């Protein structure tokens, strides 16, 4: 049996200093193939439901990049996957013993999509406290520079939430024209890129002939609140309590 991941003090220190850390091969390729089947089926159901009521797809830039969110809340298989010991170990190491699922979504980059997804901090979309929360970016298939792996700007989380401007493809918190374009972070299937919600990151265009599939899962300490109005965010799925699966 593969040992459950353990996060060392050195890894936590690097995460605090640089704002990200790559955990290779947390899951097997076979496990990622099984997860991909479940995620693909959910996306197809969502499309069919929208079509049946004559609605527009909630998936933006469907010919380039697709987002499907709140999957675990609607799919028991995905919910069970996010309560596996690997996730418990990672999240409690960085967030403490009581952890909730804040957000989960697929991000599928279609082949030969010409545009990147711009530099941003996740906190810019909905500022919350306590911040930062934890983003765990799971590579379902290999994420490479050719197919649009992410880039991060090391240490960018230390400056707090930056001003962001809207664009047709998302909030922009840092220019792609700046000389420092951070580090490319390729990840093999089953690997997890951990970064804080205040860490600037982007993803490049997919110039390959295949889809780049990622599952982006965000976790928070229990008791997350909106900055605006200090309102408690209710209804979040508990993941861990007292360091154990909830």
Query: What is the straight-line distance between the termini?
Result: 23 Å
Instruction: Kindly report the CATH topology.
Output: Jelly Rolls
Low-confidence stretches: 55-59
Number of domains: 1
Question: Mean pLDDT, rounded to whole units?
Answer: 92
CATH class equals Mainly Beta
Task: Give the % helix.
Answer: 10-25%
Please give the CATH architecture. Sandwich
Proportion of residues in extended strands = 25-35%
**Shape, principal axes of CA atoms:** globular
Q: In total, how many beta strands?
A: 14
What integer value in Å does the Rg equal? 17 Å
Q: Could you say which structural class the secondary elements and strand pairing correspond to?
A: alpha+beta
**Biggest sheet, open or closed, and with what strands and sense?**
8 strands, antiparallel
Describe the structure.
The chain is of the alpha+beta class and 246 residues long. The protein has a single domain (18-245), classed as Sandwich (Jelly Rolls), CATH 2.60.120. Helix content is 21%, strand content 26%. The chain contains four helices and 14 strands. Strands 1, 2, 3, 6, 9, 11, 13 and 14 form an eight-stranded antiparallel beta sheet that branches. It is globular. The two termini are 23 Å apart. Mean pLDDT is 92; it is low at 55-59.
């Amino acid at each position: 049996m593969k040992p459950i991941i353990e996060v060392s003090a050195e890894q936590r220190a690097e995460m605090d200093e640089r704002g990200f850390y790559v955990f290779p091969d947390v899951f097997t390729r076979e496990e990622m193939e099984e997860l991909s089947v479940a995620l693909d089926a959910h996306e197809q159901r969502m499309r069919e439901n929208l079509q049946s009521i004559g609605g527009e797809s909630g998936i933006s830039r469907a010919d380039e990049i697709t987002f499907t969110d709140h999957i675990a809340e609607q799919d028991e298989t995905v919910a069970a996957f996010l309560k596996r010991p690997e996730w418990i170990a990672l999240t409690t190491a960085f967030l403490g013993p009581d952890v909730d699922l804040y957000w989960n979504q697929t991000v599928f980059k279609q082949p030969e999509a010409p545009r990147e997804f711009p530099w941003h901090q996740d906190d810019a979309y909905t500022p919350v406290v306590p911040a930062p929360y934890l983003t765990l970016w799971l590579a379902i298939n290999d994420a490479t520079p050719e197919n649009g792996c992410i880039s991060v700007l090391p240490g960018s989380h230390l400056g707090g939430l930056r001003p962001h401007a809207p664009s047709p493809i998302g909030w922009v918190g840092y220019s792609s024209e700046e000389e420092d374009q951070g580090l490319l972070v390729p990840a093999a299937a089953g690997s997890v890129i951990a970064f804080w919600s205040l860490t600037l990151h982007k993803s490049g265009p997919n110039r390959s002939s295949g889809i780049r599939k990622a599952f982006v899962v965000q976790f928070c300490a229990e008791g997350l609140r909106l900055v605006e109005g200090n309102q408690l965010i209710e209804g979040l799925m508990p993941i861990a309590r007292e360091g154990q699966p909830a």
